[in-house]
Amino acid sequence: MVRLAAVIAALERLYPPELAESWDAVGLVCGDPDAPVRRVLFAVDPVAAVVDEALAWEADLVVTHHPLFLRPVHGVPATTPKGRLVHRLITGGVALYTAHTNADRAAPGVNDALASALGLEETRPLVPADAEDPALGLGRVGRLSRPEPLSAFVRRVAAALPVTAAGVRAMGHPDADVATVAVCGGAGDSLLGTVRAAGVDAYVTADLRHHPSSEAGEAGGPALVDVAHWASEWPWLPDAAALLTAELSGAGATVETLVSTTPTDPWTLHRPAPESGTDEGAHAER
């Protein structure tokens, strides 16, 4: 029987905490390091639906990408939504661990999983994090095996990621060739300048805002492909589960893993615009 401390050590070999942003909150949120771990659930968000799933499956540990707490708190009463989650986890004997921006920068990590899901080859970090290890860094840049029109590439992205109410939207000419692509799981419009300097044909990320996107287009930047935040990070979960299993097996330990398929994207409804009369129109691709 493997102890929680050993599972945490394995996770931190895969996703070193020192790779995390200074503002981030990664690591063990709740749980006893001496407690045994038989089952580990992987999810993007530490929300009520995921806790429901963990308790129903009798998980001993939940590993999430997003932190439960990013700001300091002075208490976790069950009268608050986050406090209620902590109480439910502790009462159910379930530990919670977060790998956030350290998993974004790791290799392989969140961005490798997204790049692989889209079929990108010969990938490298968009923003390198360590001169001694060129594989580490934020985002990824890669190429498709053969160029394709933006309209086809948007369909590729939609087919590769979990379905969400908002779907996939893009900025750019539908017939423009896409050969080189940058990706950043999660909110990535802070990297628009870096992406433009990289000279890629398209950039796939989430939470793109109106003004930065408009300005990027006016500056002659790449095509932009905006996906749901949750969907952009979900491909990491199967990879993380497989890597943890391999890491523990190398030490002679085993755990059962499960990847949550519970949609935790907050948006649940989408009303598309009227058809433009062409399948390649600005709002026909979704």
Automatic annotation (TrEMBL):
Residues annotated as signal peptide: none
GO molecular function: metal ion binding
Chain positions covered by the region annotation Disordered: 261-286
Residues the entry annotates as binding a divalent metal cation: 65-66, 104, 229, 233
Superkingdom, taxonomy of origin: Bacteria
InterPro entries, A to Z: DUF34/NIF3 (IPR002678), DUF34/NIF3_sf (IPR036069)
Any single GO CC term annotated in Swiss-Prot or TrEMBL for this entry: cytoplasm
Keywords, in A-Z order: Metal-binding
UniProt key word Electron transport: no
Gene3D superfamilies: NIF3 (NGG1p interacting factor 3)-like (3.40.1390.30)
Subunit structure: Homohexamer.
PANTHER family in UniProt: GTP CYCLOHYDROLASE 1 TYPE 2 HOMOLOG, NGG1 INTERACTING FACTOR 3
Family in the record: Belongs to the GTP cyclohydrolase I type 2/NIF3 family.
Name used for this protein in its record: GTP cyclohydrolase 1 type 2 homolog
